[in-house]
Amino acid sequence: MKQFFSNLWIKFKKSIRNYPKYMKRFFKDLFVLFRNNIRDYGMYIALITIFIFFIITTGGLFITPRNIFNLIQQTGYIAVMSVGMTLIIVIRHIDLSVGSIAGFIGAILAVLIVTYDMNAIIAIPIVLLIGITAGLLTGYLVAKIGIPAFVASLGGMFAYRGLIFNSLQNTGTLGVNNPIINAIGQETIPAIANVFGLHLLSVIIGVIAVLLFIYSEFRTRKEKSKYDFEVLPTDLFIAKLVFISITILTITFLLASYRGFSWVLVIVLVVVAIYHFMTNMTVLGRHIYAVGGNPEAAELSGISVKKITYFVFGSMGFLSALGGIMYLARLGSATFTAGEGLELQVIAGAFVGGTSAAGGVGKVTGSVIGALVMASLINGMQMMSLGTNYQAIVSGVVLVAAVIFDVKTRNMKKVQA
Amino acid sequence: MANYILEMHNITKTFPGVKALDNVNFKVEEGEIHFLVGENGAGKSTLMKVLSGIYPTGDYTGQIKLKGEVVDFRKISDSENAGLAIINQELALVPEMTVFENIYLAHEIKKRNIINWNQTIHMADKQLKRVKLNVNPGNKVKDLNIGQQQLVEIAKALSKNVQILILDEPTAALNENDSENLLNLLVELKKEGVTCIMISHKLKEVTAIADSVTVLRDGLTISTLRKNEINEIKIIKDMVGRSIDNIFPERKPQVEDEIVLETKNLNAYNFAVSKQVVKNASIKLKKGEVVGLAGLMGAGRSELALSIFGNPKNYDMDGDVFVHGKKVHFNHPSQALKAGIAYVSEDRKNEGLILKQDVKQNISLTNLKLLAKNGVIDKNKEIVYAEKYRKEINIKTPSIEQTVENLSGGNQQKVSISKGLFANPDILILDEPTRGIDVGAKYEIYTLINQLIDHGMSIIMISSELPELLAMSDRLYVVAEGKITGELSKADATQENVMKLATV
Questions:
Q1: A249: domain range?
Q2: What residues of chain A lie within 8 A of the CB of B365, using their CB?
Q3: Each residue of B182-225: pLDDT tens digit?
Q4: A133 within domain boundaries
Q5: What are phi and psi of A106, to 5 degrees?
Q6: For chain A, what is the domain count?
Q7: What's the pLDDT tens digit per position in A77-124?
Q8: Kind and range of the H or E element at B217?
Q9: What is the 3-state secondary structure (H, E, C) of B60-72?
Q10: Nearest C-alpha neighbor of B174 from the set B197, B213, B201, B193
Q11: What value of ipTM does the predicted structure carry?
Q12: Are A299 and B401 in contact (CB < 8 Å)?
């Protein structure tokens, strides 16, 4: 026992002596980690920078629970659609019809609920199906008929806009006052209870998310070392775990101290989780990236490029419909201009998030962060009372800068630690 | 003393982590045909990029002298102005433009910025005559075959009053006939005083027309041989650093009577080019057999293979395919793979591999179902399998997580073959399995073919290198203009017999 403590004491003394050397190595490792993963981390660094900038310029108003809550509400429908757009761009296509489809779906949903007095529980699955059909139609034009997706979806963009006018011509702008739609637009998940003024269920979800994250990180690490693959040094690994856990918990507690997690946040998280899993872990996901990376090789490997194209456009249609429902819920009414220009915000989110137009490269999580970057910029500049002119200019510059960053870092060689 | 038109002294060029060229010396006499040979990665292309100014002065160390004067090329146009022209493997032609537009692209014949088209056409016609290409200069380049396109490239170089012509593997994509035409043309041009530097993997060409040969290995100049010293054995020994006694490994005949694959009167019509690419083709493949498909480039060999392999290019087809005696009808490669047929493409970069993905993801692509449970991939299993192929097929890569674009040609080809094998086929179609890879890697591929046959596989092999095809095949079919023009047993298969049938 005495021996053990004296050993520990010697170790401790030694580590104190080696502390400066240790820190030097730690930061060198950290630098190498960032340098080698700059493409993956760049987006997060950009987001953090933007946050810090706006926190300073708005005197902390930007980071208030209320504003973070609003920011999520504003980004939700764009983020959901960016997820679908990522896959579209990964397989080397584009979909310009998503904004009009979102608006069209909102209009139909409003008509079904208000004019036909349909229960939202029935109406929502119906419009989601219509969304999938619209997506498959674009997919048909691209995969089967063989016309460029740009043209096929541009046609859709005009046509669905027209259909919005058809749907609303008898009623004009149509207000929807339905409990489910309102919940999707504004409400938060039930709290169960309030503990110390915190929204309990949100806290529970946040904590579970952190635990799941830590567990999965440990599992991946264990498996990687099993095959002698490179893993992070232990200290960096722990630093990463701590940093991300704290980030998740901070956001959780921020939101829990205000109104808790909104349904919008829950929908976004579920969509991202499903698509993240699908792209990384499943055969379908691998096939999508193979088709994007090299369609000829994919075809000769026994993958049906046609089927993948149908699936990806169908999924885009589904997510456009989901985005359309969220958009309608947020506005509370179906309008003629709903979703106008939305497609470009969605595409911008995907590109800012590191999706490559050359195909085969892009992460759904990246696109969501990309959408959040764009939304944060607008939100922050609004708080600084900068006019829409500046907002537009800055958005444009950031979009181009993000892609320049992506192109410039694409062929960067990895350095050894 | 010899009259050197070009001298490169002590050229050293480093990339991060690798010394691509290490004090290379390279001297070319005026008016000779000088071959530059070496395995892939030996530094041949890098040396030519240094010479042509793609890597500007300062990017390397050493000195380049042209006709005794030190030159300083900072971009390609500098070297072009000095009378150098480089013709890369990937041709720099615009397919949608006409032949004459291409020949005078970027050095148009003009007056006050207005192009004189009549003069251009007239001059282009002259250059075409020089390279003995009998096409209308008004044809679009995309309508020419690869051999003709190659000649257009040379005409373009000649139109710039080139003194030194550099050709990087010009015959890699050409058939025997076109290759021979090209070599003859180079000899003709030599008489006109054009010096020619040529990179090639085909040693037959070297022995046929070279005046000098320089061998590079691992970025070092190993030897320069003059006309009377040139022989194939010596070159191979210098290239690989050891002597390879047998270019083709022996195989015990394993052919059984069982017919594993048969086509009867197969026809395929390609609408994209309005051409019948396969005409009434009937072939048989026996268990344990390597059947060669010989023929000229564009004769329809790959098209026949693809017609069997689920018709990925959507030809309009009729005729029957039998696998293990059962009539099959594949609408997609996935069905062919399921039936035990795998196809390894002739074009590994564009059709074979997903260059941006890593080794294991490429290998597993043909049979992800094997790794998946309920559609979710077991990544551990994937690693185990990929490691297995890396060891068995000897894929030289730092890790199976390396992206494929960073591998050498030979190793990319091994990944491409592994990918086919991962589908667990008993019939394998190898389309030009050794194109553009070095001697050592070729030998490994031949050995692999023999091993696969020993394990009970049956193989259809397509190759434009006749010696290889003759050595590896138990039997072969000759294809010409989509038709099977002959079937030759191993005993009857000679170069002459094949060429006679291939050129009907």
A1: 192-261
A2: 286, 290, 297-298, 301, 303
A3: 999 999 999 989 999 999 878 888 888 999 999 998 888 999 99
A4: no
A5: -60, -45
A6: 1
A7: 999 999 999 999 999 999 999 999 999 999 999 999 999 999 999 999
A8: strand B212-217
A9: CEEEEEECCEECC
A10: B201
A11: 0.82
A12: no
